């Protein structure tokens, strides 16, 4: 499941009614633009009780906008039980490639 933070411009598209349906084989992903998105995602993860229910939670920095090292520092500082995930397709095929 993808959660859209405020910086995406699509926060209203989140389907919160699907959160209770998440189970141990599911994964959650948040692509983050800045510190405000990180705080939003951190608070959602902790308040919605998904940490022990899903297989993994991934936080990805928006390529070229949020430094991955900065995101890693925030995750470590908060001891957040999430994985840092880079948008690998951006590194392999470039930031402007579509449909890959």
Protein model, in words:
The chain is α/β, with parallel strands linked by helices. It has one domain (about 1-10, about 20-95). It has helices at about 35-45, 70-80, 90-95; strands at about 1-5, 25-30, 55-60, 85. The chain has a four-stranded parallel sheet with strand order 1-2-3-4, covered by helices on one side. It is globular and about 35 Å long. The two termini are about 20 Å apart.
Q: What's a quick, concise take on this entry?
A:
This protein is of the alpha/beta class. It contains three helices and four strands.
Task: Please give the share of residues in helix.
Answer: 25-40%
Class of secondary structure makeup: alpha/beta
Distance between the termini: 19 Å
Largest sheet: 4 strands, parallel
Rg, Cα atoms, Å = 13 Å
> Which strands sit side by side, in order, in the main sheet?
1-2-3-4
Mean pLDDT: 94
Number of strands: 4
Instruction: Encode the helix/strand succession as letters.
Output: EEHEHEH
Number of helices: 3
Topology of this structure?
Elements: E1 2-3, E2 27-32, H1 35-47, E3 56-61, H2 68-78, E4 83-84, H3 88-93
Parallel strand pairs: 1-2, 2-3, 3-4
Key features of this structure:
3 helices
């Amino acid at each position: 499941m993808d959660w859209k933070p405020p910086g995406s411009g699509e926060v209203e598209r989140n389907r919160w009614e699907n959160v209770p349906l998440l189970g141990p084989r599911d994964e959650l992903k948040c692509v983050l633009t800045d510190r405000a998105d990180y705080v939003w995602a951190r608070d959602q993860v902790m308040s919605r009780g998904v940490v022990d229910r899903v297989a993994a939670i991934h936080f990805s920095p928006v390529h070229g906008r949020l430094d991955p090292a900065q995101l890693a520092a925030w995750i470590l500082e908060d001891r957040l039980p999430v994985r840092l995930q880079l948008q690998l397709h951006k590194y392999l095929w470039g930031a402007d490639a579509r449909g890959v």
